[in-house]
Design goal:
Layout lengths: L7 H23 L6 H30 L9 H8 L2 H16 L11 H5 L2 H5 L6 H28 L5 H33 L12 H26 L8 H32 L2 H13 L1 H19 L8 H40 L29 H22 L12 H5 L4
Helix pairs in contact: 1-2, 1-14, 2-3, 2-4, 2-8, 2-9, 2-13, 2-14, 3-7, 3-14, 4-7, 7-8, 8-9, 9-10, 9-13, 10-12, 11-12, 12-13
Length: 429
Amino acid sequence: MNHYSISNSLRTILFVMMGLGVLCLGLTWIGDDHSHTRFWSNVLHNAVFFTGIAIMATFFMAASITAYAGWYTAFKRVFESFSAFLLPGFIIMTLIGVAVFMHANHLYHWADEKSVANDEILKGKSGFLNKNWYLFGTVIIGAAYTYIAMKIRSLSVAEEHTEGEANFSTHRSIRTYAAIFLPVFGFTSVVLIWQWIMSVDAHWYSTMFAWYSLASLFVAMMCLVALLLIYLRGKGYYQNLSKHHVHDVGKFIFGISVFWTYLWFSQFMLIWYANIGEETIYFRERYDNYPVLFFGNLVINFALPFLILMRNDTKWKTGSISFIAVVVFLGHWLDFFLMVKPGVLHTAHELVGHAAEGGHGAAETAGGGHGAEAVSSIVSGFTFPGMLELGTMLGFLGLFMFTILTALSKSSLTSEKDPYVGESLHHHV
């Protein structure tokens, strides 16, 4: 079977997941503080995570096309379908940008004009960290990513109906757009990570943070690719794929997990060794107040994939790959939770402190109105993910899977006219 169709039962499951996500967001909004800090931080966390996965799938596809890679061609439709989430993902990020622009949330300390006026560090960064660039930068970069991804996808589908010179011309156009995407991605992906995630801790800066975050997204993306391929094969699709293809996906999960750990350690070690206060505060906050997530991050995202996938034979086994893909995917979702939540909570308490100093009283905070001293206490939805966070993640996952499976169903699963499909079908490691 070379054409996928979403079953009614799966469609129902995905809609239930999306409904659960909407319900959890609604309950979060109702029980939240006056600024809806938990609600907005949950939206930001999941929107960045799943949009980032779509971005990394587009990057992998563009890099593979430019490098004349053939092994993945038989299932390149999977990566093309992942890129379909760029549109809804950037729409959600634009809505967050609109909320930042209108001061409808307090995710970012730099978005508070009174704080910037009295803070020399934030004032110095205001040329980049400002509500105008956050919104319009997201729109401009998102439009460029989405346009190029859609062109690659449309040309790839059109390639199926061409012969001879026309086929060569179409494939050359695909290669052109892929080559254009790579430098665009190289210069702008770090910008998105800086403004979406790193600026949550506005006084902190690391030159390695963007690469660390992108490596995390890449591993999460490959985990979903592995799970989707295994699922489709189990349903009778992609029977032309061999264990060698799954083995190579497993090698990517293993290899980039090691690379992610290298970046984690390098960033942490250099900042720890330099012992500069404005740099160490990022890790000090997470080391002191989020120790389970801080150390669990290494166990889940490095120790488990390293020890399990280090053996060559485990990368052949769908059971081992499925287990590690699920665990590591959740691990990198927790990794982004740890990137977002401490900074957002700290910003919320700082704004409460400023309000109290201004004579407005101690406004209700994400921690229940305890003020700045509550940063180190257990705060629902911030110290550790609660049921509302997990439900929200499942809702975003349902939307993501519905988007990519819908895109997958609109064309053949294997592009038989791709010049490298023969190499892919005979791939052997």
